[in-house]
Amino acid sequence: MTPMRGTIAGCGVGLRAPHIRAMQDERPPIPWLEVHSENYYVEGGPALTALMRLRADYPLSVHGVGMSLGSTDPLDRVHLAKLRRLIERIEPALVSEHLCWSGVGGRALNDLLPLPYTEEALAHVCARVAEVQDFLGRELLMENVSTYLAFADSTIPEWEFVAAVAHRTGCNLLCDVNNIYVNAVNHGFDADAYLQALPPHAIAEIHLAGFDATGPCLVDTHGAPVAPDVWALYRRALAHFGPVPTLIEWDTDIPPLATLLAEAATAQSMLDTGDALAA
Amino acid sequence: MPSLRELQLDFADALFAGDSARPPFATIPDERVAERIAVYRRALFANYGNALGATYPVVRKLVGAAFFSAAVEAFVRDHPPTSGDLNVYGDAFPAFLDRYPHAAGLPYLGDVARLEWAQDEANRAAAADTTPEQVLAMLAAIAPERLASIRLELAQSCRFVTSRFPVLRIWRSNQESDGGGERVSLDEGGDALLIRREATGITIERIAAAEHTWLASVAAAAPLGIALDRVQATGDPFDFAAVLRARIGDGSIVGVNTS
Questions:
Q1: What is the tens place of the pLDDT at every residue in B177-228?
Q2: A67 touches chain B (CB under 8 A)
Q3: What is the domain count for chain A?
Q4: CATH (one of 3.90.930, 3.30.470, 3.30.1890, 3.20.20) for B126-259
Q5: CB-based contact, A158 to chain B, within 8 Å
Q6: A73, A107, A145: which to substitute to probe chain B, counting the most B Cβ within 10 Å?
Q7: Is this prediction's ipTM beyond 0.85?
Q8: What CATH number does residue A258 fall under?
Q9: How many Å apart are CA A155 and CA A119, to the nearest integer?
Q10: Bridging pattern class, strands A60-63 and A94-98
Q11: pTM, to two decimals
Q12: How big is chain A by its Cα radius of gyration, in Å?
């Protein structure tokens, strides 16, 4: 079992490079931080040094964007070894990745690409999740991704596919509420039915972010405030799942830290209200 | 129905094809498949561009955002990344720029890129775990007759860039903190640069030709005697004792290998 420390609860924020200095200087009372694992696949330097300092004050979650778990290429053992090394260094409370693929044929396609929802893809991705969990000696959280097209050959509704990955591998789920909303609009399904299909006991984290609506479909840019419809869906998710630890992600057009913290405070107030209702 | 592998290979090809190309797999909505693939293509190439732009900010500033994006796209097609970690992508970009026909009017561009890549690598390298005092003690413990055969160890962050252009002045005059506008003449001479990381950040300094010859030999794990022979062969003046003291003192030389 790789080490872990701290407890993740409440609403945290994704730590991004432009905010590292302010986070170190101001130490805002945010309950936890999430980092992209690949940004710390280094042997030394200022990024890792800053993270090692922040780790003393904040529980951490590491969130991978590059493992390509759904790819039919072999798993990248170097990538996996770097993740394990990072986990040993910072002892994160949570380790997560995406239900997608990011490269094939030896070519890295560094984006979250869509899987067909078929029995073949389900068996493949479950075997890979199990392999990584065995290698790391701990559970992964797997996140549902935004998609901009659906494959005609898909035979399984997305929500059943996501739930089956958790059921078959014992992994937990990182429920990205914004991604559910984006996909519900893009593909014309009922976001609430999706939420209801997920097993509440497996939901270990929720992501919230903003999308872009200026193109031919909604695009998950993480470059805007959380949309009102997504806040509403988030409240219904909390009613269904309970007060799950939540994260605000903002990756493009990154605003001042205060804006990000205000988004987190909004989510925190919804989490607190949910607690009161549940009590 | 295509296998998962066939579908992924076709999808990857579609991402690298033209905007109007129609992929061989069926999607919903099918009539909009090219438009939706284009959404993925834009996001993917934006990711590549952002990653390389973070590594090569001065190259990007020198050529402008549109030129940079076009160069990145051509580079990705020539040298697609092989790692899910884009932070380590781009070591071949300087050599690509040397040959990129549209950059022929900027012959120093590749060397500016080399200087930026060296800083990027230095920022990711492991820190040394020895102090100058410890290194001096290691050296003092070696019998004089064995000195020629030892190998000095450079800090992991040390990198060298040489250029026939004044690449450091070009780089410095394009920093945000610099007022900019300073004119650099390409005829003012080339640079041999040592790039390394100290606790306070990256340092870049010009080094004399003799010191470069010596340090590059040390970096290539040459025994001390052979490294000094190489310097002597150049005929350049070289105060070995002073340079050694300085490079141990500033943390460039971090160990002694006697095996």
A1: 765 667 888 888 899 999 999 999 999 999 999 999 999 999 999 999 999 9
A2: yes
A3: 1
A4: 3.90.930
A5: no
A6: A107
A7: yes
A8: 3.20.20.150
A9: 8
A10: parallel
A11: 0.94
A12: 18
